[in-house]
Amino acid sequence: MARRNYYDIDDILAGQERVPCVLRADLDGLGSAGSGGASKVHRNARWALPYWMADRLNEEDYVDMEVSPVFSKRANRMYAASPESMQLRAICQHYYQFGLQLGDMVPEIPHVLRNMYVQRIIKVARIAQQGQNIEALDFVQSLDKTETRMLKLCQQAQSAISDWHKNQAYALKRAA
Description:
By secondary structure, the chain is mainly alpha-helical. It contains eight helices and five strands.
């Protein structure tokens, strides 16, 4: 089972991403949850379940969980070819956290995540230092939640450095 942070809302939302699954046994009473109105779901039926549910059902041998299309071999090749041009927010808003949850299932995912993060975070830091222009705006709109958080932290750090250079940092104020 993947490492989960029970109190982290972003981790919870990442767990909501759907993954394809194949049922290993006939299940009664689940027909209304899937497509169709039948009350029995037959073995080998394909379902897209939220990751948190699929992971648990996979442990109990009720389903065979497959790799999410977000981290398929084809998608990973696209990410490696041009990481800065990927629209991660459109692909998966919690791309990195979802990838970490799937890391136990697919051994190459942590490597893909690291390479993409390293290449994209350089551009995030550059945008925080130089300010935003039209090109930067397109890139900022493609950031996932983790990268957006990093951009805000970089901008706050840049602002603090600027204040320090202007001798405005840590200025004592007179009490009223």
